[in-house]
Each structure stands twice: as structure tokens, then as C-alpha cells.
Design goal:
Layout lengths: L13 E2 L4 H11 L3 E5 L5 E6 H9 L22 E2 L5 H11 L3 E6 L2 E7 H12 L4 H4 L2
Parallel strand pairs: 1-2, 4-5
Antiparallel strand pairs: 2-3, 5-6
Length: about 140
Amino acid sequence: MQVAEYLRGHVVSVEQAASLEEVAHIFELYQQPLVPLIDDGARCVGAISARRLAAALAREVPGLELLDKTVRSVADDKTVMCAPEDQVVDVMRNMQAEDVPAAVVVRDGLVVGLLGWPEVVAALAESCRGVAPSAAMP
């Protein structure tokens, strides 16, 4: 089960200098589990999750214009990246170990998609088709 078979292909990325307000709109409009951050050359340099954005907003100090801050200033410390040819189960393990909602799928550093938990579950369910329930249980 390769990532390429299950990835979410339509992904909106933002430059590191984008405002948190812009990122909040992306989460609202596109329902992505995270938003990849790109540099001037469109290469992925990290990501921000909705959970991280919410935590930053919760820490907001009255009088500060947090939504005007750049996304890079509060981006996630850990970003799981993978290639389209990677195995879903390997990426799933990395996502679980890093406690992230999705992995950014990159080819030559450029974002080509996301693999979130819904896509992982779909891949696992498909791999279990035709397998007796008792055989599928460890």
C-alpha cells in the first residue's frame, strides 16, 4: 500500500510569512488536517496543524495582534514528511510516534499531497478486505 494510492492530492500550502489569519481561513475553507509551509522556491519547510493554531490562539495576550503574526512563528516543531512511494503503514507509524494529524507528501521537496488519519484508515480497511475477522486481529 503506497502513499500515492491514498494521498489527498488537493492541498493548499502557504509561505512561511503568511499570517495566522490566512492559515485560519485555509483550515475553515479546505478542512485540511494541517497546512504545509513552503519557502520561496515552493519547497516544504514544515507545517502547522489546527491544534497548534488553536493552542497559539489560546495563549493570546490581550492587545496583541496574534492573527497578524507569521505562521512560521508558531509552526509545529515536528512535521512528518514522506514520499509517494513510501508504504502507508510506515508513514502511519511515524505519524503516531510524532503525534501529528497528517504527513506532508513531497516529491523533490515540493508538496504533492497529504496523508491524514482518514486516508490511513481507508488504506488499512482496504488491506483487510477478504480477510476473515479472526485472521485480521493480532
